[in-house]
């Protein structure tokens, strides 16, 4: 069940006129975030550039005043170069602060790079995109559907992605991301595995003994782990390849989509690995 309605606006010089139109079309907005390019918040020595930036700042203040008059919560967020990861961080923060809210975007204004980044990220948080396309009436823009949130509601998928992300170096070049051997990955995930459904006891079967205070009901089987990996690779969140050093064993690494999904949907309260990786974003 959705609680609240978050509206995200890319900052441009006409957002103060587009905002009232959106309010008429999308009644029930409870909070608005204006996302601006960091350069728009700075003063330029070039008179023409400063005139344009001043217009954006004035329009942003007008949106703030309209929101205040309607008791709508207002916030302004800045995006810094490089735009995509910075915009992702901003939207991650918004998503975590409004986990059950409906989210809409108005991308009618703002720099092209900012609008493209927000448009690319919108599907990851189930956002509806609107734009006036230079006209006066906003229209909804079709965006692709990514049903990864439902998959990652199982915290074990989040843990696997967190381990893969933890073992990734700082390099952002995809070809430099190493693959993690399956057995090593299993060993790292095993201590944090949480059974989603209770296992029925088998009459006469021996009761396994576990260290570190773990319960037998939480034991992660190889078959279950294989299913997790199959689902993650099938969803494009992880990649599989033969392990060159271990013959027949397979290895895995996180994809760009996998990192995006983890950043948006992982719960830092689930375990220490999750918190470590999310705190480092």
Tag the structure with descriptive keywords.
Arc Repressor Mutant, subunit A, single chain, alpha/beta, 281 residues, 2 domains, Rossmann fold, elongated, 3-stranded antiparallel sheet, 10 helices
Question: What would you note in describing this structure?
Answer:
By secondary structure, this protein is an alpha/beta fold. It folds into two domains: 5-145, Hypothetical protein VC1899 like domain (Restriction endonuclease-like) (Rossmann fold); 150-279, Arc Repressor Mutant, subunit A, CATH 1.10.10.10. It has helices at 15-25, 47-69, 83-97, 112-121, 148-151, 155-166, 182-189, 222-234, 256-265, 272-279, and strands at 5-10, 31-37, 73-79, 102-106, 128-131, 139-141, 180-181, 238-242, 250-254. The strands form two sheets. It has a six-stranded mixed sheet, with helices on both faces. Strands 7-9-8 form a three-stranded antiparallel sheet. A hairpin with a 7-residue loop joins strand 8 and strand 9 (250-254). 32% of the residues are buried.
Q: Considering DSSP H and I runs of 4 or more, what fraction of the residues is helical?
A: 40-55%
For the biggest sheet, the summary is:
6 strands, mixed
CATH level-1 class of the largest domain: Alpha Beta
Q: Which fold name corresponds to the CATH topology of the largest domain?
A: Rossmann fold
Radius of gyration, Cα only, in angstroms? 23 Å
**Please, what is the average pLDDT?**
87
CATH superfamily of the largest domain: Hypothetical protein VC1899 like domain (Restriction endonuclease-like)
Between the first and last Cα atoms, what is the distance in angstroms? Answer: 28 Å
Structural class call reads: alpha/beta
Strand content: 15-25%
Number of helices: 10
Specify the CATH architecture of the largest domain: 3-Layer(aba) Sandwich
Placed side by side, the strands forming the largest sheet appear as 3-2-1-4-5-6
Can you tell me the residue ranges where pLDDT is under 50 for at least 5 consecutive residues?
none
């Amino acid at each position: 069940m959705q609680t609240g309605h978050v509206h995200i606006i890319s900052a441009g010089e006409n957002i103060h006129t587009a905002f009232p139109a959106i309010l008429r079309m999308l009644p029930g907005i409870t909070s608005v975030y204006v996302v601006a390019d960091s350069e728009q918040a700075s003063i330029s020595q070039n008179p023409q550039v400063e005139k344009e930036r001043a217009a954006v700042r004035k329009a942003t203040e007008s949106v703030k005043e309209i929101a205040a008059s309607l008791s709508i919560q207002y916030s302004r967020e800045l995006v810094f170069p490089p735009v995509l990861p910075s915009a992702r961080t901003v939207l991650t923060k918004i998503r975590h602060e409004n986990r059950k809210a409906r989210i809409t975007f108005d991308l009618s204004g703002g720099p092209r790079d900012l609008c493209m980044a927000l448009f690319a990220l919108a599907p990851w948080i189930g956002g509806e995109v609107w734009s006036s396309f230079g006209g006066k009436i906003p229209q909804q823009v079709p965006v692709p559907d990514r049903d990864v949130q439902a998959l990652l509601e199982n915290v074990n998928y989040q843990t696997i992605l967190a381990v893969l992300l933890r073992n990734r170096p700082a390099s952002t070049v995809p070809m430099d991301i190493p693959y993690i051997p399956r057995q090593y990955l299993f060993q790292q995930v095993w201590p944090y595995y949480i059974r989603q459904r209770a296992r029925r006891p088998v009459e006469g079967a021996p009761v396994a003994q576990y260290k570190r205070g773990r319960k037998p009901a939480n034991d992660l089987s190889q078959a279950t782990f294989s299913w997790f990996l199959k689902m993650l690779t099938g969803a494009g969140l992880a990649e599989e390849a033969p392990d060159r050093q271990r013959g027949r064993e397979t290895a895995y690494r996180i994809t760009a989509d996998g990192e995006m999904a983890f950043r948006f949907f992982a719960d830092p309260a689930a375990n220490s690995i999750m918190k470590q990786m999310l705190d480092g974003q």
